[in-house]
Amino acid sequence: MSVLVEGLTVRFGDAVVLRDFDLAVRTGELLVVAGPSGCGKSTLLRAVAGLVPVAAGRVVVDGQVVRGTSRDRAMVFQDDGLLPWRTAQRNVELPLALQGVDRSGWRAAARRWLDRVGLAGFERHLPRELSGGMRQRVQLARTLAQRPKVVLMDEPFAALDAQTRADMQELVVEVLREAGTTTVFVTHDVDEAVRLGDRVVVLGTGEVDVRREAILAAVRS
Amino acid sequence: MSARWVVRIGSLAAGLLLWQVLTATGTTAWLRFDRLPTVVEVAQRLVEQAGTAEFYTDLTASLGRIAVGFLLAATLGITLGIVVARSKVLGDVLQPLLEVVRPIPAIALVPIAILLFPTDEQGIVFITFVAAFFPILVSTRHAVRALPTMWEDAVRTMGGDRRHVLLNVVLPGTLPGVFGGLSVGMGVSWICVISAEMISGRYGVGYRTWQAYTIVDYPGVIVGMVTIGLLGWVTSAAVELAGRRATRWLPREATA
Q1: Chain A contact present for B158, CB below 8 A
Q2: A207 occurs within a structural domain
Q3: For residue B65, which of B211, B207, B175 has the smallest C-alpha distance?
Q4: Are A51 and A85 within one domain?
Q5: Do A71 and B157 make contact, defined as CB atoms within 8 angstroms?
Q6: Count of domains for chain A
Q7: Distance from A171 to chain B by nearest Cα, in Å?
């Protein structure tokens, strides 16, 4: 499923966070959007997710203009986004329950995805009983259980230690490739961008920094 | 029995002993303990009263008023708290009305309750309801507004609609705040039910306590006060326990 961002402008009150921004993500591609804090990376993801109103321009996903949220576009948050009153298993079951899958179907699928991210045996743990890396694994399992066509990842590993982050990067690339989803991954870490992305876009102040994008492309090749 | 329980029971026993000594010796050191009944007199009066049907009629009358008033307040307070916090339109319509009525102490509404309701019983339940309603409403409203938006965003990007967000995020996520309001509401509703019973009741622990005062039965007054204290403690503990069970997911400090 392709993602096309055309002339996107997003405002919060008087502040323009993104101005006339264009971006194209090919089906199955893992595109990394890098850039410093406050440059509008997260806002871009939220606009693609349908979580923020667009002042001008449009986001087109698979030929359809985005007018709100959809289960086809899943979001992975920096602070794990898990519901703290649900166990790991019940967090992963949630998107399946919302999709109307029958209860026995949820359970089996949730267990399978937890197993896939290396968390077999932790099904009954609450998020507070898991480490930061494990919580991100649960979030990844939850996202994959949703079977989205597009995954939007908002600095999901920013709070993790170096080793856990490296493990998670490896896991993410592996499972997203396996699932064949189109992914937009936001980070402020250039190393992470180079390591993960099929392509890297660098955001300056709400606009694509073509010069740095070219340098990164050279580094990658 | 753990050392902490020994301390707790010891503290209660020391309080009772002090009371007995001060009243039995008729101590008058600015405060006049010579006119107060001793612990033994109160205990004797409690045993006497516990043997009468009237005592249990009063107990069930007060508990029934609390149960009905508090449950109505919980239902309406939680519902309106969520509505006011989640809907701009309904917030604009309801909030000014609620904010004007909120500062009025529930007990000051007794004359209105007497005029408004056909029976005293309904008036007392109304006072109990009003007392618990506002703490529950305000706590719920704050809890809804304090919810991290990320949880709602997560459910929405899973394809969830407003109903899914309400059921999967708002209701469970606000429980800690809601139970804070229920705890406060239960305490205030006891204060108000007793006061309302003293003013316009025909049965109830508050009515009986006031009756005891008017016939100069001071041990009876203290029995009434102790009964109110125990009932308030038991019902508040029940709310506290329900809250702890419903919010097991919260991080808690380990207690010995």
Answers
A1: yes
A2: yes
A3: B207
A4: no
A5: yes
A6: 2
A7: 21
